[in-house]
Structure formats: C-alpha cells, structure tokens
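subagent[fold] <- orchestrator: predict structure for attached chain, return tokens only, no commentary.
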Amino acid sequence: MLRTALLALLAERESHGYDLAARLSEFGLAPDMAGLYRTLRSMDRRGELRSEWSTSSKGPARRIYGLTEEGRCRLQRALEGMEAHSVTVERLLLHSRPAAPSGTRRQR
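subagent[fold] -> orchestrator:
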C-alpha cells in the first residue's frame, strides 16, 4: 500500500521525503522516516522513481523524487488491481451485513 500511495503522490508532483511523509497522511499512512527513505531508495533502484539532489540557500540539500515511466505503469497496474479488489470487498460487505428484522423493538 505504501508503494502505491507514493507512486500516486509522485504522479501529482515531484517531492522530497518530508513532503511525501506529510502527504501520506491523506491516505491514513504514517510510516517512520527511516522506513519511508528505505522504500524510496528501493523504488529508485527498481526504476519506479528517479531522484536527484536539490540544493537551496534556505536549508540543507534534499533528494527530490519523481515518477518514471516504469513507475507510471506500476501505478496503473496497482490501481486496476485495487479497483477489482474493491468491487469484491463491496460485494462481500453487502452480502454479509445482517438484515435488520422489521418491526422489532428493543425491550428495556
């Protein structure tokens, strides 16, 4: 899930690690920074991301991550899989929710 969320965020715009960590909260994800950077480096090595150092006079150098064509393809495949899975989950939820008995009142 973390990799897919990172791919989705980087499809919107290039970002550095701390920005990505803040934006991951939109998905309810809050990885530790060390784990996040390990994941980003792994995705970079796999060709899903590209990264480069950006220097600024306002602070330390930051590694900026962007999506590659391979990353876009992996994101598309992941989203297609998630959509198919969500249909199954929705059907299971609808099927397994107990129907409320009609005309039944709770006794006090």
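orchestrator: received. Logging for downstream: The mean pLDDT is 88. The chain has one domain: 2-95.
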